[in-house]
């Protein structure tokens, strides 16, 4: 197939591009490169690349010509960056998604797979069981509200015009080549340098960490799903942040102290106490669930990303 990935030079998009190339698909990537380029040289040499903003209607229209599938992953990412740039965050989401939908309709693209977020659940995550797609969502941040808006917007286009859409609710994806805007690489860098590992809040808050290879596998398997679906991609395992920090200390042999900091006010709505997801719907649609446990995933990251670094 011919497949466009918006935001394809980012963490998840670059890993997905490599996988699709390995499976002999024709891959096009559209990315502004404002946050760098995570595509390795071999993968980059095998794709067609468009440098630009997903908010450019003409660019998206051109990049998607002849495509069978669009993975729409372009977004503003990182809690601090998003919190400090709410207008840009919403513009990229809303205008970018509108452009993707219009381009898909103009170019007869059969499938759109959209990167949503588990952040949509927000404080509804206090439910005792793992979150499924039927739970009433509670978006409170500009990022989460824009993601939820786009889920509804995509569903509306499916109802009126028949485009097949899947909104992918990612749960704390981590893995190779992720940067320190995210908690796992930040903890690794602090631990390897024997610097304090900084945790916002009590450290008792929990998250569901999903390994990048499992995430990519789910994304690939969801190609060809017809209709309109919202699908969690979750590991179904709950880890508190303090335990994450201690596990990274153990893997790296670090002497770092874990330091607890009060979360800045602009992070308040991002700091939910509990989040763990159910991947039952993913399994029903594809026969697959994420399988990599966090300890194994962290060990793989350490071997791939950090073993050549000298400890201080």
Q: What is this structure's SSE topology?
A:
Layout (H helix, E strand, L loop, with lengths): L1 E5 L4 H12 L3 E6 L9 H5 L2 E4 L5 H7 L5 E4 L6 H6 L1 H21 L4 E7 L24 H20 L2 E7 L2 E2 L8 H10 L4 E4 L5 E2 L2 E2 H10 L6 E6 L5 E2 H12 L5 E4 L18 H7 L7 H13 L6
Parallel strand pairs: 1-2, 1-4, 2-3, 4-5, 5-6, 6-11, 7-10, 8-13
Antiparallel strand pairs: 9-12
Helix pairs in contact: 1-8, 3-5, 5-6, 7-9, 9-11
Q: How many structural units, i.e. domains?
A: 2
How confident is the prediction overall: mean pLDDT?
Answer: 91
String of helices and strands:
EHEHEHEHHEHEEHEEEHEEHEHH
CATH topology grouping of the largest domain: Rossmann fold
CATH superfamily of the largest domain, please? NAD(P)-binding Rossmann-like Domain
- Rg for CA atoms: 19 Å
Shape: globular
Please state the second-level CATH architecture of the largest domain: 3-Layer(aba) Sandwich
Just give the CATH class of the largest domain. Alpha Beta
Strand content bin? 15-25%
């Amino acid at each position: 197939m011919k497949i466009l990935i918006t935001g394809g030079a980012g963490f998840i998009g670059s890993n997905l591009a490599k996988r699709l190339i390995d499976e002999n698909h024709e891959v096009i990537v559209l990315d502004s490169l404002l946050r760098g380029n995570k595509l390795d040289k071999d993968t980059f040499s095998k794709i067609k690349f468009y440098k630009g903003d997903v908010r450019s209607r003409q660019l998206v229209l051109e990049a998607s010509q002849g495509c069978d599938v669009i993975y729409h992953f372009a977004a503003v990412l990182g809690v601090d960056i998003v919190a400090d740039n709410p207008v840009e965050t919403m513009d990229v989401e809303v205008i970018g998604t509108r452009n993707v939908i219009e381009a898909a309709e103009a170019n007869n693209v059969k499938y759109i797979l959209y990167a949503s977020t588990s952040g949509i659940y927000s404080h509804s995550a206090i439910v005792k069981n793992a979150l499924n797609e039927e739970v009433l969502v509670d978006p409170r941040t500009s990022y989460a509200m824009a993601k939820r808006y786009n889920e509804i917007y995509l569903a509306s286009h499916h109802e009126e015009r028949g485009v097949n859409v899947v909104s992918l609710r990612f749960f704390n994806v981590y893995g190779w080549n992720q940067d320190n805007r995210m908690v796992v690489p930040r903890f690794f860098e602090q631990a390897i340098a024997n610097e304090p590992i900084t945790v916002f809040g009590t450290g008792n808050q929990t998250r569901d960490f999903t390994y990048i290879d499992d995430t990519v596998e789910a994304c690939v398997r969801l190609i060809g799903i017809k209709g309109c679906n919202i699908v969690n991609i979750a590991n179904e395992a709950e880890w508190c942040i303090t335990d994450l920090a201690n596990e990274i200390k153990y893997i790296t042999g670090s002497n770092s102290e874990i330091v607890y900091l009060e979360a800045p006010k602009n992070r308040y709505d991002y700091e939910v106490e509990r989040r763990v997801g159910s991947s039952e719907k993913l399994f029903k649609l594809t026969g697959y669930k994420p399988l990599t446990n966090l300890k194994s995933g962290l060990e793989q990251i350490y071997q791939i990303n950090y073993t050549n670094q000298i400890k201080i």
